[in-house]
Design a protein that fits this description.
By secondary structure, this protein is an alpha/beta fold. The chain folds into 2 domains: about 160 residues, FAD/NAD(P)-binding domain (3-Layer(bba) Sandwich), CATH 3.50.50; about 140 residues, no CATH class. Helices cover about 40% and strands about 15% of the residues. The strands form 4 sheets. The protein has a 6-stranded mixed beta sheet, with helices on both faces. The chain has a two-stranded antiparallel ribbon with strand order 3-4. Strand 3 and strand 4 form a beta hairpin. It is globular and about 70 Å long. The mean pLDDT is about 95.
């Protein structure tokens, strides 16, 4: 039986970053991916006609380029073929009757653009970003913190409880607002609302869902601050560079391999079994980059290590909305766009 320090189930972007760090630290790592190649929700295909590459799922790399992983691994990924490019005009909208607007990476330009569309919208834009900006460092720190730790409890309390400890904070009071609530209450111009509303879909929310108002502000702040970075050749170039880095550091990636069971001995995960009946031993850790229903109800189904409450919660897990994307192969750039 083959054995490794770590076995990672799945080879999506989170798993690949995990493996990159572990192999860099000298661990032997095996990744097992059920699809034909690594990537998960990061995949580039010739969907329309040959020569036109489309990002099927993830396309923009804003959160990745702002991450600690990119800061740590970016130079090595560049050496393995990753080239990230950006634009000072990352977003725009075109609406009926010739109405249009663009969003730039410059605060003053955006204030002027919003003000052009409706008096007062420029000031509202500045106030919105200043408001969400004061919470952003704490929010993003929380996103990369183990939520079971005392540190996470402290951060959540700072965000959600008022300074006197007697009620919800201003952040908490607005946290569950919808994107429609936020945009319609802040901006008069339907064009400026229209340039911002679609971004919330990238978080898996609809514009009328609770908490979508928070995410539309986060994406607005991120877009102005860092633009919308993309990878030359498609988003999958990130995956290819990560996979090469892992393999260069001694890691192993098997594709077309479906894990059906996590092997447990003495209350600890010690390996995995695949659909083909092969078993692999994990000397130090098994990492499952799966959804909770897959992990607790399938991979660990025949074990006694999952508490009943966790099983019950996993059984209630529901998948969110799909997002419709239209991919076009154009014979020439749209009118008004530079050919380069």
């Amino acid at each position: 039986m083959e054995s490794y320090d770590a076995i990672i189930i799945g080879a999506g972007p989170n798993a690949l970053v995990n493996a990159a760090y572990l192999t860099k630290a000298g661990w032997s790592v095996l990744m097992l991916e059920k699809n034909d190649r690594p990537g998960g929700g990061v995949r580039t295909e010739e969907l329309t006609i040959p020569g036109f590459h489309h990002d099927v799922y993830a396309g923009f790399l804003i959160l990745f380029t702002l991450s600690q992983a990119y800061a740590d691994l970016g130079s090595e990924l560049k050496e393995r073929g990753l080239s990230v490019v950006n634009s000072y005009l990352p977003a725009g909208v075109s609406m009926p009757r010739g109405k249009a607007a663009v969003l730039s990476t410059d605060m003053q330009a955006n204030i002027a653009e919003a003000e052009r569309l409706a008096s007062g919208d420029g000031v509202a834009w500045q106030q919105m970003l200043q408001n969400i900006g004061q919470y952003a460092p704490l929010v993003f720190s929380l996103l990369k913190t183990d939520l079971t730790t005392p540190e996470a409890v402290t951060m959540i309390r700072q965000l959600m409880v008022s300074s006197d400890g007697k009620g919800p904070s201003p952040f908490a009071s607005e946290f569950l607002l919808t994107a429609r609530d936020v945009l319609e209450s802040m901006f008069k111009s339907e064009v400026w609302q229209g340039i911002l509303a679609p971004w919330v879909l990238h978080s898996g929310h609809g514009p009328d869902e609770a908490n979508s108002g928070f995410w539309v502000q986060v994406f607005a702040l991120g877009t102005q601050t860092a633009g919308q970075a993309v990878a030359v050749g498609g988003a999958e170039m990130v995956v290819r560079a990560l996979a090469r880095l892992i393999q260069d550091q001694g890691g192993t990636i098997y594709t077309n391999t479906t894990v059906t069971r996590i092997l447990v001995e003495g209350g600890k995960a010690v390996g995995v079994r695949t659909e083909a009946g092969e078993e692999y031993r994990a000397n130090r850790v098994v990492i499952a980059t799966t959804n909770p229903d897959q992990l607790y109800l399938k991979l660990l189904a025949d074990t006694d290590v999952v508490p009943p409450l966790v099983k019950q919660q996993a059984s209630k897990f529901r998948y969110g909305h799909s997002v419709l994307a239209i991919h076009l192969a154009l014979s020439e750039p749209p009118a008004g766009m530079m050919s380069d």
